[in-house]
Specification:
single chain, 206 residues, six-stranded antiparallel beta sheet, 2 helices
Amino acid sequence: MRSLISVLAFSASFLVVPAANAASLLFNFDSADSSIAVTENSRLCLPFSGCALSASLLTPFNSLTIEEGNSQTFDFARFDVSSGIGGDSDARVQTVLAFTSPSIASAGTGGTAFYLRAGSIRRPGVLAGTLNWDNPVQQFTTLDGSKFTFKFNNVGGFAAGGSARSSLTVTVDSVAVVPEPATWAMMIGGFGMAGAVLRRRRSVTA
Protein backbone atom coordinates (compact mmCIF):
# COMPACT_ATOMS: atom_id res chain seq x y z
CA MET A 1 0.00 0.00 0.00
CA ARG A 2 2.81 2.41 0.85
CA SER A 3 4.46 1.69 -2.50
CA LEU A 4 1.25 2.52 -4.35
CA ILE A 5 0.80 5.79 -2.46
CA SER A 6 4.39 6.80 -3.16
CA VAL A 7 4.02 6.12 -6.88
CA LEU A 8 0.75 8.08 -7.10
CA ALA A 9 2.24 11.02 -5.22
CA PHE A 10 5.25 10.99 -7.57
CA SER A 11 2.96 11.05 -10.63
CA ALA A 12 0.68 13.77 -9.31
CA SER A 13 3.62 16.06 -8.58
CA PHE A 14 4.11 16.60 -12.31
CA LEU A 15 0.62 18.00 -12.68
CA VAL A 16 1.73 21.23 -11.02
CA VAL A 17 5.01 21.62 -12.91
CA PRO A 18 4.62 24.48 -15.48
CA ALA A 19 6.43 24.65 -18.76
CA ALA A 20 9.78 26.45 -18.73
CA ASN A 21 8.55 29.22 -21.03
CA ALA A 22 4.94 29.33 -19.82
CA ALA A 23 5.36 32.71 -18.11
CA SER A 24 5.89 34.76 -21.29
CA LEU A 25 4.67 35.30 -24.85
CA LEU A 26 6.76 35.89 -27.96
CA PHE A 27 5.56 38.48 -30.51
CA ASN A 28 6.89 38.50 -34.07
CA PHE A 29 5.54 41.18 -36.41
CA ASP A 30 4.87 40.68 -40.11
CA SER A 31 6.14 43.86 -41.77
CA ALA A 32 5.00 42.78 -45.24
CA ASP A 33 1.33 42.59 -44.25
CA SER A 34 1.36 45.63 -41.94
CA SER A 35 0.35 49.03 -43.29
CA ILE A 36 -0.62 52.62 -42.53
CA ALA A 37 -2.37 55.16 -44.76
CA VAL A 38 -3.57 58.76 -44.56
CA THR A 39 -6.64 60.27 -46.25
CA GLU A 40 -6.88 64.06 -46.03
CA ASN A 41 -10.50 65.21 -46.19
CA SER A 42 -10.32 68.96 -45.61
CA ARG A 43 -6.72 70.05 -46.14
CA LEU A 44 -6.43 73.75 -46.77
CA CYS A 45 -3.05 75.27 -47.62
CA LEU A 46 -1.91 78.53 -49.15
CA PRO A 47 -0.93 78.43 -52.83
CA PHE A 48 2.47 76.87 -53.49
CA SER A 49 2.36 75.29 -50.02
CA GLY A 50 2.42 71.59 -49.35
CA CYS A 51 1.49 71.20 -45.67
CA ALA A 52 0.48 67.60 -46.40
CA LEU A 53 0.36 64.85 -43.77
CA SER A 54 2.12 61.55 -44.51
CA ALA A 55 2.66 58.41 -42.42
CA SER A 56 5.08 55.49 -42.43
CA LEU A 57 5.63 52.41 -40.30
CA LEU A 58 8.90 52.19 -38.35
CA THR A 59 9.69 48.75 -39.72
CA PRO A 60 11.26 46.32 -39.23
CA PHE A 61 9.75 45.84 -35.78
CA ASN A 62 11.81 44.02 -33.18
CA SER A 63 10.53 40.78 -31.68
CA LEU A 64 9.12 41.13 -28.17
CA THR A 65 9.20 38.62 -25.31
CA ILE A 66 6.87 39.80 -22.56
CA GLU A 67 6.24 38.06 -19.25
CA GLU A 68 2.77 37.59 -17.81
CA GLY A 69 1.48 40.76 -16.16
CA ASN A 70 4.06 43.01 -17.87
CA SER A 71 3.87 45.55 -20.69
CA GLN A 72 6.19 46.96 -23.35
CA THR A 73 5.72 50.15 -25.36
CA PHE A 74 7.39 50.96 -28.67
CA ASP A 75 6.98 53.49 -31.50
CA PHE A 76 5.37 51.87 -34.52
CA ALA A 77 4.50 54.82 -36.83
CA ARG A 78 5.90 58.20 -37.83
CA PHE A 79 3.88 61.16 -39.11
CA ASP A 80 5.34 64.06 -41.10
CA VAL A 81 3.89 67.37 -42.27
CA SER A 82 5.53 68.95 -45.29
CA SER A 83 6.49 72.65 -45.22
CA GLY A 84 3.87 75.26 -45.94
CA ILE A 85 1.08 77.23 -44.34
CA GLY A 86 -2.20 75.47 -43.65
CA GLY A 87 -3.51 72.22 -42.22
CA ASP A 88 -6.34 69.73 -41.98
CA SER A 89 -8.99 69.34 -39.29
CA ASP A 90 -10.29 65.93 -40.37
CA ALA A 91 -7.50 63.75 -41.74
CA ARG A 92 -8.17 60.02 -41.45
CA VAL A 93 -5.47 57.49 -40.56
CA GLN A 94 -5.87 53.72 -40.95
CA THR A 95 -3.30 51.22 -39.70
CA VAL A 96 -2.96 47.43 -39.62
CA LEU A 97 -0.33 45.46 -37.67
CA ALA A 98 0.09 41.82 -38.67
CA PHE A 99 1.90 39.00 -36.83
CA THR A 100 3.58 35.71 -37.51
CA SER A 101 3.31 34.81 -33.81
CA PRO A 102 1.12 34.50 -31.87
CA SER A 103 -1.19 33.16 -34.56
CA ILE A 104 -4.02 35.69 -34.37
CA ALA A 105 -5.90 38.00 -36.66
CA SER A 106 -4.09 41.27 -37.30
CA ALA A 107 -4.69 44.30 -35.07
CA GLY A 108 -5.90 47.50 -36.67
CA THR A 109 -7.76 50.73 -36.11
CA GLY A 110 -8.61 54.04 -37.69
CA GLY A 111 -8.13 57.49 -36.24
CA THR A 112 -8.78 61.19 -36.82
CA ALA A 113 -5.90 63.68 -37.04
CA PHE A 114 -5.80 67.47 -36.78
CA TYR A 115 -2.71 69.51 -37.64
CA LEU A 116 -1.67 73.09 -38.42
CA ARG A 117 1.60 74.08 -40.05
CA ALA A 118 3.16 77.50 -40.75
CA GLY A 119 6.76 77.43 -41.86
CA SER A 120 9.48 75.53 -43.69
CA ILE A 121 11.78 72.71 -42.65
CA ARG A 122 14.50 75.18 -41.66
CA ARG A 123 12.00 77.46 -39.91
CA PRO A 124 9.17 75.27 -38.66
CA GLY A 125 7.09 78.18 -37.32
CA VAL A 126 3.82 77.36 -35.58
CA LEU A 127 3.05 73.64 -35.56
CA ALA A 128 0.30 71.80 -33.69
CA GLY A 129 -1.46 68.50 -34.13
CA THR A 130 -3.26 65.57 -32.51
CA LEU A 131 -4.28 62.04 -33.47
CA ASN A 132 -7.04 60.14 -31.65
CA TRP A 133 -7.53 56.45 -32.44
CA ASP A 134 -11.09 55.12 -32.84
CA ASN A 135 -10.51 51.72 -31.20
CA PRO A 136 -7.33 52.10 -29.17
CA VAL A 137 -7.66 49.12 -26.76
CA GLN A 138 -7.99 45.60 -28.20
CA GLN A 139 -7.73 42.25 -26.42
CA PHE A 140 -6.81 38.97 -28.09
CA THR A 141 -6.94 35.30 -27.05
CA THR A 142 -4.57 32.75 -28.55
CA LEU A 143 -5.48 29.16 -29.43
CA ASP A 144 -4.03 27.88 -26.14
CA GLY A 145 -6.02 30.39 -24.07
CA SER A 146 -3.34 33.03 -23.43
CA LYS A 147 -4.59 36.63 -23.43
CA PHE A 148 -2.91 39.93 -24.29
CA THR A 149 -3.95 43.52 -24.95
CA PHE A 150 -2.86 46.12 -27.51
CA LYS A 151 -3.25 49.81 -26.82
CA PHE A 152 -2.74 52.27 -29.68
CA ASN A 153 -1.60 55.45 -27.91
CA ASN A 154 -2.94 58.80 -29.11
CA VAL A 155 -0.59 61.51 -30.38
CA GLY A 156 -0.75 64.71 -28.38
CA GLY A 157 1.52 66.97 -30.43
CA PHE A 158 3.97 67.34 -33.29
CA ALA A 159 7.64 68.18 -32.86
CA ALA A 160 9.49 71.09 -34.44
CA GLY A 161 10.16 70.18 -38.05
CA GLY A 162 6.72 68.69 -38.56
CA SER A 163 6.97 65.14 -37.24
CA ALA A 164 5.35 62.96 -34.58
CA ARG A 165 5.36 59.32 -33.54
CA SER A 166 2.59 57.01 -32.38
CA SER A 167 3.34 54.20 -29.94
CA LEU A 168 1.80 50.83 -29.17
CA THR A 169 1.64 49.25 -25.69
CA VAL A 170 1.50 45.44 -25.54
CA THR A 171 0.37 43.87 -22.25
CA VAL A 172 0.39 40.12 -21.55
CA ASP A 173 -2.67 39.55 -19.36
CA SER A 174 -2.37 35.80 -18.84
CA VAL A 175 -0.36 32.88 -20.19
CA ALA A 176 -1.79 29.37 -20.50
CA VAL A 177 0.33 26.73 -18.75
CA VAL A 178 1.12 23.79 -21.00
CA PRO A 179 3.32 20.96 -19.63
CA GLU A 180 6.47 20.17 -21.58
CA PRO A 181 6.76 16.81 -23.42
CA ALA A 182 9.24 15.54 -20.85
CA THR A 183 6.78 16.31 -18.06
CA TRP A 184 4.03 14.40 -19.85
CA ALA A 185 6.36 11.43 -20.36
CA MET A 186 7.32 11.25 -16.67
CA MET A 187 3.70 11.64 -15.57
CA ILE A 188 2.53 8.83 -17.87
CA GLY A 189 5.42 6.68 -16.71
CA GLY A 190 4.40 7.28 -13.09
CA PHE A 191 0.83 6.16 -13.72
CA GLY A 192 2.20 3.13 -15.54
CA MET A 193 4.22 2.24 -12.45
CA ALA A 194 1.07 2.64 -10.34
CA GLY A 195 -0.74 0.16 -12.59
CA ALA A 196 2.13 -2.29 -12.29
CA VAL A 197 1.99 -2.08 -8.49
CA LEU A 198 -1.76 -2.77 -8.52
CA ARG A 199 -1.35 -5.79 -10.80
CA ARG A 200 1.42 -7.16 -8.58
CA ARG A 201 -0.73 -6.78 -5.44
CA ARG A 202 -3.59 -8.64 -7.10
CA SER A 203 -1.35 -11.50 -8.17
CA VAL A 204 0.11 -11.82 -4.67
CA THR A 205 -3.37 -11.84 -3.13
CA ALA A 206 -4.50 -14.57 -5.55
